[in-house]
Design goal:
single chain, alpha+beta, five-stranded mixed β-sheet, 23% helix, 39% strand, elongated, binds zinc ion
Length: 262
């Protein structure tokens, strides 16, 4: 029942009050729905799959960004229900896109339309399927592993924690290093990250040594000749010490794309 008391902000009576404030005044004071200034979306340029929460999904999607790409970045007030999201790419450069849209929301008794804008940085990475299908080109592999022995963790937990340290490395890696990541494969004992550029792979390996004190074992194998020169593929095996893996949350819900939000 509407209260005979008045809103402490606008002074109106006859409004439903929460903590003495009417819905309209509360809506004006709170952030109902917001986006970070810039988000990062990783997509496969071949098939349109998106890298979300640590795996590829939605193969066959359009390369144009849609509300499915941006919804995960929305910060929604706990009392807000989002009815509809609409987006339009305003300018479309390959890697950085300006996007404007609006959210139709309900907050207590109010319906509102909130305009939203965001810059989306688009990183193109070949997905696992397309990489395999194409016998995709790579020159280096970063193997993310736990201790050789004893194996105390269950494989799934180990992979989750390795994924978390990889996400930390990812946020600190230079953009050109990240762009050199062709695809990533999940294995029982960890992850293999395939690079199209060996220097970038080595730089990430060194970053891991600096940040986490990992040991690096480097090996090379001849895989062919190009322009009269032997071509090698280089493998960097990174073994993360138990103390490092203990210190991260092995939360598969955290994707590299969302790490920028924090
Ligand atoms: Zn009021
Ligand atoms: Zn693909």
């Amino acid at each position: 029942m509407p209260s005979a008391e008045f809103c402490v902000v606008c002074g109106r009576t006859g409004q439903a009050l929460t903590d003495g404030v009417c819905a309209e005044c509360a809506a004006a004071r709170e952030s109902l729905v917001a986006l970070p200034e810039q988000v990062e979306v990783v997509l496969c340029p071949q098939c349109g799959a998106r890298w979300v929460r640590g795996h590829w999904e939605r193969a066959g999607s359009s390369l144009v960004l849609s509300s499915d790409d941006l919804a995960p970045f929305l910060r929604v007030h706990p009392e807000v229900g989002v009815r509809e999201l609409r987006w339009e790419e305003r300018s479309r450069r390959a890697s950085l896109r300006e996007i404007a849209g609006e959210a139709r929301i309900r907050f207590r008794s109010l319906e509102r339309t909130v305009p939203l804008t965001v810059r989306a940085r688009v990183l193109a990475r070949t997905c696992t399927d397309c990489g395999r299908r194409a016998g995709h080109y790579y020159t280096a592999v970063l193997q993310l592993r736990g201790e050789a022995s004893p194996r105390t963790r269950r494989p799934k937990e180990l992979r989750g924690r390795l994924d978390a340290v990889w996400n930390e490395l990812w946020t600190e890696a230079r953009p050109d290093w990240r762009n050199a990541v062709a695809w990533r494969e999940e294995l029982r004992e960890g992850w293999d990250v395939f690079f199209s550029d060996t220097l970038a792979a080595r730089s990430v390996a060194r970053l891991a040594r600096q940040r986490f004190g990992v040991g690096i074992v480097e090996s090379a194998s001849l895989f062919g000749r190009k322009d009269g020169q032997d071509v090698y593929r280089v493998t960097f095996c990174l073994r993360f010490p138990p103390a490092v893996l203990d210190g991260v949350r092995g939360d598969a819900e955290r994707a590299p794309t969302q790490a920028l939000e924090r």
